[in-house]
Specification:
By secondary structure, this protein is α+β, with helices and mostly antiparallel strands. It contains six helices and nine strands; from the N terminus they run βααβββαβαβββααβ. The structure holds coenzyme A. Coenzyme A binds next to strand 4, helix 3 and helix 4.
Length: about 240
């Protein structure tokens, strides 16, 4: 682990590093997958009032180590949530193009997982897993960003949930058709072998309910979890050739 990179949790929504984080968020995340930045900065502002029983939200930032009094120059961020009774949910990771390929993304994801483990402990249990979704490239679309993501997920030990196409609300355009997303899962306290088809269906249904307010009976729920599919944990890189 490099000590030339420092990471910390943003706790002051008005701090100048938040403007840098916002620029990075808006520059690195596909527009149709972005939530309004105010949702993220608002959660930073409310962080100090968090208590177990509620979603615990984190915005972790990374910067090169500078002199003690120099302002930081943010080169990466990770946004994550602990959902009590469910598990961890990584929402966004972004790294400045010039700083990529040097372990910043992996460091931020690992740090987020540790923070989510602390949240689970605050609740009185262990963190079973962390999940996140991502949109694969459409046929003909440039696949380089997808390859970089899969490289990162592989590096941190996450698996792809094959057989699942999550139909998720497009929060940037709620009237648009649902986003069709792939799901990735990083086992934490719960062993990878225990995630069979039934367990993965529960994970997906839990995410749809917790994050997308989508319950059984809803069209998006039915489209995400048709009974004839078998869900399996596969190595993350196997998602590379998948036709979406
Ligand atoms: C995905 C992203 C966060 C990776 O950040 P990063 O700091 O470059 O990642 P790391 O340097 O920690 O690399 C982690 C692993 O991914 C692999 N990887 C990184 N970029 C890659 C690329 N372009 N192609 C293939 N593999 C890549 C690395 O090889 C590394 O594995 P290794 O250590 O075994 O070699 C960065 O590319 C990015 O910000 N992309 C745009 C935003 C995005 O897609 N975010 C993710 C979804 S929210």
């Amino acid at each position: 682990m490099t000590t030339e990179l420092i990471c910390w949790e943003a706790l002051d929504a008005a701090h100048p590093s938040m403007a840098q984080a916002r620029r990075l968020f808006e520059a690195t995340q596909p527009p149709d997958e972005q939530i309004p930045w105010e949702w993220i900065s608002g959660a930073v502002g409310r962080r100090k009032d968090w208590r177990p029983g509620r979603w615990a939200t984190h915005l972790h930032l990374a910067a090169p180590r500078g002199a003690a009094k120099e302002p930081e120059s943010v080169v990466g961020f990770a946004n994550s949530l602990h959902l009590p009774g469910y598990g961890g949910y990584l929402t966004y990771v972004g790294v400045e193009p010039a700083a990529r390929g040097r372990g910043v993304g992996a460091r931020l994801v690992r740090l987020a997982v540790k923070a989510l483990q602390v949240d689970a402990w605050c609740e009185g249990g262990d963190l079973p897993f962390v999940v996140w979704e991502s949109r694969p490239p459409a046929p003909g679309e440039d696949a380089s960003a997808w390859r970089a993501k899969l490289g990162l997920w592989r590096r941190v030990g996450a698996r792809w949930v094959s057989g699942l196409v999550l139909h998720a609300t497009n929060y940037s355009r709620p009237d648009a058709p649902p986003l069709r997303l792939a799901l990735f899962l990083l086992p934490a306290a719960r062993p990878a072998e225990s995630f069979d088809d039934a367990a993965l269906r529960e994970v997906a249904a839990g995410l749809l309910s917790e994050v997308y307010d989508c319950e059984p009976g809803d069209e998006r729920h039915a489209a995400s979890l048709p009974p004839d599919r078998v869900l399996r944990l596969r190595p993350a890189e196997e998602a590379e050739g998948v036709v979406w």
